[in-house]
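are you around this afternoon, could really use another pair of eyes. what follows is a protein written twice so to speak, once as letters and once as structure tokens for the fold. i want to understand how the tokens follow from the sequence so walk me through it. anything you notice is useful, everything is just below.
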Amino acid sequence: MSPSSPVARRWRLGLVCSLSSLLLPAEGGAQTPPPTRLAPIEVSPSASETPKPAARSSNSASSSRPRSRPAPAAAIGNTPRAAASGASGSASPTLNATTPGSTGSRLNLTPLQTPASVEIITSQTIAERGQHNVTDAVTQDAAGFIATPAPGNGGLSFSTRGFAGSNSVMTLYDGTRFYIGSGTLTFPYDTWSAQRIEVLRGPASVLYGEGAIGGVINVIPKKPLGTPYNEAEVSLDSNMTRRLSVDSTGPINPNVSYRINATGNMSDGWVDRDKTSNAVVSAAVRVQASENLAFTLSEDYGDRSPSRYFGTPLINGVIQDALRFKNYNALDSTIRYQDSWTQFKTEWDVADGIKINNTLYYLTSERHWRDIESYTWNPKTSLIDRGNYIEIFHDQKQAGNRMDATFSGHIFGLENRFVAGFDVNHIDFTHTNNSPFGGASSVNPYVFDPGSFFATTTATSPGFNAIVNQYALFAEDRLSLTDQLSLVTGVRYDRPEVDRTDYRTSSNSFDVALSGTSWRTGVVYEPIKNLAFYGQYAVGVDPVGNLISLSATQKTFQLATGKQTEIGVKQSFLGGRGEWTLAGYQIVKNNLLVADPNNPAGLALQVGQQSSRGVEASVGLALDYGWRIDANVALLQAKYDNNSQLVSGKLVSYAGNVPINVPQQVSNVWLTWDFASNWSVYGGVQIVGQMYSDLANTQLRPGYNVVNGGVRWKPDERTTVAFRVYNLFDKVYAVTSPYAGQWLLGMPRTAELSVNVKF
């Protein structure tokens, strides 16, 4: 039966329709080859990127697109099948060292050309491993990342290279940054609309501004294509998570193309009384106005009612099995996030070697929490004491524009590429709450009435408003000193101005202007093709708190400064079937806040310091007979060099202690085997070392190993059926600790069945 025959199409659509009544999840699969020897392949940019006219055949950096009508997508290799997931599930490793990216540099360099630790995680890899959210994709695929997600921070909080939280690890969507308000970021979270995820480890302020000492995660969405392509997926798991996803792209006319994808899920959750729902819709239209000018208008919208589970209380320092699935939140608790991202992009090839990009954007986020968040075991009463009855609203709006111009040519006969630009933002953030968050109740740990939310101290009312006007100037350059040696440098100047209005205590209103300069310089030496040695020195800046929610006690502080030295080596070999990286680094971050022993009010001094040093390694290898292995490991030593805080009126030094939410070892191992024609099996283990939940290093959270696996079957080239098991051995482990004596546990063993159809 031909895959494109009417009978085959009816069979596939009938299968999807029968399962869609359950409203299931989405995985993009790819046809897997029989277990024969693999022909050498070269890792190349994803075919799902927007097709552009081919450049002149030239090795000169001054070459650009010819002045002719763009070639049809099919003519440059963008077939509908390639547009989604690529070819074989085991065709290439996941590092994508020779694929140009936009996160490690604005010069469209490949990871091999970039003097930094950069990885590109493709949608094919994400789909094969059943990673529905950004958190799982980053922490299970990229080296050195862990997540510290919680309902209170929006679920998008990461730790890498010894630095944790949204102040130190930045998340972008298509290169655009949404400024963090009160430690919370809620978009992007779902991977269905992502074409790839790029990660950069180490200071990235030179590219994206303050708040990225640890690194950057950039989620790149799927783009409009000139070739018709459609995809749908449904899935169901043992937590009754029903997920339905669709994706469609193609031409409207020869000069206009579109892309629209949507995904939604509903779940009963894995703890008591924790129904959730999520919906994401992404749409984009690209207009090729002329041979050298293109416009893209996109809109991304997320409406999310996530888990209201804030963790499980420890009893005598451990998790009791009987409490694993208990939810101690109020019966009428609620959390909802609504995010909207509107962007208008212009790409203009002005002349040979000159290109201008501009992105105009308007971003909004509406967030609401109403929860009982703190649960503590009381040994005297044998009850769970509940506190922190919190209601918070966020109303955040951000309008901005980012423009850069790239010049490719020669300086004194040496090939050179240079980019310069600016970034401006206007942010309006209103925080409404019921501070000081009173309320208290006690319940039986095992059988209890969850009760209703109430506040015993203060009614919910506007707390403060912050207006932030930010502008930045940046530049980056790559000079090829020889055919093997290049120099990559960059600099950025940021100046945010904060105007805070306190609605409750007028004396806490203030306005302040901050400034910071970030820069980096690095060299890349490529003695033979696709083998690169590199070294880099970078200086970045972080705020002492979230910039748009600075408090009155922080208004006099300047940005903290971090300095990193990194050396490494990268290689792509066997025609792209093998890749490996090795990097060593040291980061020192100073101007952190420590207690002032002469100030009983608890005001701080900006003289603290934190440091980390470590080694990271990654390898990806597509072997013969359908085998593929991907593995990475990150080993680090992180500590507070100078950190003193007032505890019960006494000054306590934490120098030498390990920072909060920082494990000293993190690794991932994935193994895939195409064991028969159209059949593939895979398994992976995520290994995270122990970490601490407090400055004193008295609250130790054990490390954990979580195993995921699955099997895929392709009844025909356009259909993929997958069965997956997450947390195969049902490991009980703590992801983070939102409050002392309370652990947020990871998902238990969960089985999922999905069907993906391309048509």
